[in-house]
Input
Amino acid sequence: MSHNADVIVIGGGPAGLTAAISTRRLHPNKKVLLIRDVETSLIPCGIPYMYGTFNSIEKNIIPDKVLEMNDVRLLIGHVDDIDHEGQILSLSDGSSCAYEKLILATGSKPFNVPIPGRDLDNVIFVTKDKDELSKLRSSIEATKDIVIIGGGFIGVEMADEINKMTDANITIAEMFPRLLINAFDETESKEIEEILAKSGITVRTGSKVWKIKGEGAVESIKFAKGDVIPADLVIIGAGMVPETSLAEKLKMPKNLFGGILVDDHQKTLAPNIFAVGDCCAKISYFDGEQANIMLASVGAYEARVAAMNLYSEGPINPGAIGAFSTIVGGKVYSSVGLTQANAMNMEIPTLSSEFKDSDRHPSAMPGANPTKVRLVFQDDGLLLGGMVSGGTSAGEAINVLASCIQAGRTIQQIAMMQVGTHPAVTASPVTYPIINAAQIGLTKLDACV
Amino acid sequence: MSHNADVIVIGGGPAGLTAAISTRRLHPNKKVLLIRDVETSLIPCGIPYMYGTFNSIEKNIIPDKVLEMNDVRLLIGHVDDIDHEGQILSLSDGSSCAYEKLILATGSKPFNVPIPGRDLDNVIFVTKDKDELSKLRSSIEATKDIVIIGGGFIGVEMADEINKMTDANITIAEMFPRLLINAFDETESKEIEEILAKSGITVRTGSKVWKIKGEGAVESIKFAKGDVIPADLVIIGAGMVPETSLAEKLKMPKNLFGGILVDDHQKTLAPNIFAVGDCCAKISYFDGEQANIMLASVGAYEARVAAMNLYSEGPINPGAIGAFSTIVGGKVYSSVGLTQANAMNMEIPTLSSEFKDSDRHPSAMPGANPTKVRLVFQDDGLLLGGMVSGGTSAGEAINVLASCIQAGRTIQQIAMMQVGTHPAVTASPVTYPIINAAQIGLTKLDACV
Output
């Protein structure tokens, strides 16, 4: 039996879905098949919210109707091997699929962090697998002392959400000196640590886990410093690594972080095979160096680049900017581009400026939240990054900055930006934080008026 | 007595405030004085919300502490005349103020629409005056049939808000064939009309008011078509005109719409005198022609341009883009740049594309709203305008498009935009509406892949 198609996408996560939909839209004469090896695909960024906010796993399933609506065929199956010369896939059920173009979107899996005791019962990795995550849900119900290893987005969001469904003690164990160290500068990390502490979560930064201890099931955690805390459930969210077992069969070269090497059109070294999303290598937009950025939004972007390059030379991917939001204790923290710490690692000298206001005007408006914008820029004014915290509209405000970075805008230009405002949905036109932060930034530049 | 200062701003609205604050920030050695002729200044865009949402006028006052915080001196007084050669203002209390630079931000006043009967009792213009607006509040309480003349932002927002505080019949009378004709294309105008109708407001478009009838107080409205409806309160919100009585004393030339003529640095023809906000002439960003745009956000922008140009040649104002949001029946409608109808008037051929989605993902996320993005672009892809409707984050999503227009971005570039997403605050990375609308737009361009 065969399931031939013009374009085959392997992987049903955000990058795979976007690749399939974009291909259909841009190449309407091509038949597109999406193959995934799980019955249901979860929204990866929605996983923490299955615990508190949704209190349900079913609500976080990517609806297959989006494929139907876009006339993408779906096949549940496991691809065993790729014959890249014959342009044929073989599936584990013995069937095969011929393709013109193949897009690998095989995603990522949890980093199997080498801590002794990780195989004990009640030590659970945060995967994207529905059954594993269901098991985690039931484990939470019976526990008293939960330790979450990893203080990145997964760890912080899991802690914040699990805290809504249980009275258990929750501890976040992070080996770096602060939470979310790659995403935010120190000010925001500290704010987030305080919000978590206020809601009763214990945050232990600078605390490398030495050993997970127990007989059969986990009983305690021993830190490198020697102290021991009780634990009857350990959740490991210590980063993800590219899922590349299929690519390995083709001996595809990988980068430093294990991602499949691609060129700036998302092409792998194998003819007619593209790779997008967490499984593929990335470079930074800012210095062109290898980068370890795993974001659904970056994967979806790469998928759009691939779809534009399948049959003719299209736009290039200049590298990942990295824009993201998280929500902690009901407060949104969004970030784009470089933090000052990131920039320092790249040896780019930066300045920063900030401005605080209400995100409604007057601040008596229902739904108003204090909001803060911080801009990171070069000494010639070029915008390199920014941070917005506050209410839910911070999630779109950060995209104003994302669009400015991609257009190569300077704080001189942002200080002269025209925006729309309204009492019920934005800050005041007088104090609009992005513009005011840029204007304050001007006073810090040598070339200031 | 004298109140000398280096820079004097006349007017305490958003443009005046922004001019004063920006001047202090950018020229920290200069003393800045703001003169206004009212004890308290209202947030102009917040005026409709004093009726329903706030149920209070006090909550909509611009706080004077923002002046103190920025070390701007405030003087309540009426400027009678300007000696522009001597660089001295004379006030009606006999005092005077010498200045180096003067910024006029005298704002606007209601267009005195020439309808017979406008002088009857209970016919009230929507001004920015606290006492007038308080009178309106008490009038509403005792009425049965309210007619609002004018279906622009003021009329629509007043109707929506007054409807929250009274059981009276409310009718909007608009002479044009649809509401908000300058701000939105027909689809959105019709949607807004339906929302208003559902909340019990009668919308009469294509209905020019011929006469306001009554003995002493208003009793009915007669339309040009001949029909008559009862009315015991008439609210006139039929546009604003520049307040230029001071400029007239200097014989400053004005544009077609009555705004004080300024160059692209916001300089008037009188030396050392600048004008910003509703009182000054504007051109369109898109064709450089005279434009009748009155928005607090545009005024604040012009104020920032003026502040940068006070003492040396700074950036120019290329014309107003026009970005705004409104909220009707709890739904946000935001717009930026040209509608297709506006573009047609400028003889610019356009295409458009749209995409609908939820503004959270999955759509089961609390606070999720359906959202729609429509893009208006040239046949080479250059973005000219856009519309976002949905939940409150539409107010910032429109600023993503505003920033794209100002950076000269095309839909080819927007389709390849990198953005940040998060389940609780944005649409999904797969279906992010601005990017998907742009990608759909690509398929409409001849130069498509």
Remarks:
- The mean pLDDT of chain A is 96.
